[in-house]
Amino acid sequence: MELDKIENILEKYFQGETTIAEEKELKEYFSSPNVAQHLEQYKPMFGYFSQVKQQKSTQEIPLQTKKRNVAWLSIAASVVVLLGIGTYFFMSEKNADQTVAQSELGTYDNPEEALKATQKALALLSNNVNVGIESVQYINEYEQSKNRIFKQ
């Protein structure tokens, strides 16, 4: 009877489902001299657990704090800041050139030329708006068909 109980507890142990009391019972069983022949293979494992529990560590663990090399860290931070400032000035100079070029765009000295360009832009806008209105008419037709079918 006891052997069946030990085998069941051992199976639960390997499944990770045992309680602390059951594990204690297993340790006591395997530390006793009358262990069943087919369970002898588990005896060293449970014997090891009891040996390690009694062992005390006398080894000192050195506590060394790591000193960070602050000099290298500050040099690296300075380099990053200088690169950031250099990039900012380089990009702002480049943007200033583009701003001057953009301010010159779209200006006409001749009023007739400006009128033609404006009329051309408005005609293009009108064509695009007309295309949009045509597509809205399809939506109106769909809406009417839907209303006929579902009779609101």
TrEMBL record:
Protein name in the entry: Anti-sigma factor
Transmembrane helix recorded as keyword: yes
Q: Which domain of life is it from?
A: Bacteria
Lineage start? Bacteria, Pseudomonadati, Bacteroidota, Flavobacteriia, Flavobacteriales
Q: Which residues cross the membrane?
A: 70-91
- Recite the UniProt keywords alphabetically: Membrane, Transmembrane, Transmembrane helix
